[in-house]
Amino acid sequence: MKAMLLSFFQMFRQMKKDAMLLAIAFVPVLVGALFRFGIPFAETQLINYLEVEQIISPYYGLLDLFLVMLTPSMYSFIVAMVVLEEADERLISYLAVTPLGKKGYLLSRFGMTGIISLFMSVVVVTFFHLASMNAAMLIVLVIVSTVQGICSALLIVAFSANKVEGMAVGKFTMLFTLGALAPFFISGKAQYLFSALPSYWLAKAVKESNYTFTGIGLLVTAVWILLLVKRFEKKL
């Protein structure tokens, strides 16, 4: 455990050297504030202008879900960039043969970052949510979203040779969150085309208030992680 903590703080020191990564860490708070204050204001203005009862408010639950997924997505990108930099400097091969080992290295990077992003997700959504959501559903969504974030980070490092490629793949991983749109905007069985994306099941859980779908989402994410960890270990 001590070796993992030291390895994690080493990653944190590397992150502090990159102003872009530090800025990304505050993105969820900035977006949360924009959602909380900007969207209701825009809703009011549009309702008055178009003379309708509601426009955006039926989708507040979906917007809250995107806010839940945002923090793990941002933090996963940060850790992926650090890991790719360590790969460029061949630090990973060195750390893997120390008492830390491959498993300890993966936990110190993805596991501990996941714990921090989980905590931050709860804080951000608690302060900036738009729709009412019971605490149990919020915790479950945050847990699955955190695991999905780890999956995104593994996808970046598994399919990128350097930080430049990592930024490109990082944009691709945002597709993971697009599955959340399907239950809200696609009717019938066609929406199941997105069932391989964990975010689809999270959106189903929010829309139908059914915890079963979060369990399916967690299972789907676990399959992704197992496949990506194997690929990353081969890369090491």
Structure notes:
- The protein has 12 helices and no strands.
- Helix 6 (about 100-130) crosses helix 7 (about 135-160).
- It has helices at about 1-15, 20-25, 25-50, 60-90, 90-95, 100-130, 135-160, 165-175, 175-180, 180-185, 200-210, 210-235.
- The protein is globular and about 65 Å long.
- The two termini are about 20 Å apart.
- The protein has one domain (about 1-235).
- Helices cover about 80% and strands about 0% of the residues.
- With about 240 residues, the chain is mainly alpha-helical.
- It is a multi-pass membrane protein.
- It is found in: Membrane.
- This is ABC transporter permease.
- It comes from Ohessyouella blattaphilus.
- InterPro entries: ABC2_TM.
Number of domains: 1
Apparent shape = globular
* Rg calculated over all Cα atoms: 19 Å
- Tell me about the largest β-sheet: none
Number of DSSP helical runs: 12
- Give a count of the beta strands, DSSP E runs of length 2 or more: 0
| String of helices and strands | HHHHHHHHHHHH
Structural class category: mainly alpha
Mean pLDDT: 86
Percent of residues in beta strands?
A: under 5%
Compute the separation of the termini in Å: 22 Å
Low-confidence stretches: none
